[in-house]
Design goal:
Length: 91
């Protein structure tokens, strides 16, 4: 799916909800510790949420798909299907 060709007014729908680090790891077929390292070094699109002394990383589904396509990273079709079957489809 080419997200760039979608109507920019639908950006919120396209971006969908945030994924947590375990969902991102499942999608990208990488261990969670590697996803965390990639996020901390800025090598993967990630959003940091800080509360007190805790850091929580969140990831946008569409950003991860775009990053994976650009980098040639194989993604998990099962994870994509699971995400889309929960009603998180771009409209």
């Amino acid at each position: 799916m080419n997200f760039e060709k979608l109507d920019p007014r639908r950006a919120q729908t396209v971006n969908g909800p945030y994924l947590d680090i375990l969902e991102a790891a499942f999608l990208l077929r990488r261990p969670p510790c590697q996803i965390r390292c990639l996020a901390e070094t800025g090598l993967i699109p990630a959003h940091v949420l800080k509360h007190d002394s805790q850091t929580c990383w969140k990831f946008r589904f569409s950003e991860l798909l775009g990053w994976a396509a650009d980098m040639g990273v194989e993604i998990s079709p099962k994870a994509v299907w699971s995400f889309l079957s929960r009603g998180n489809r771009p409209r």
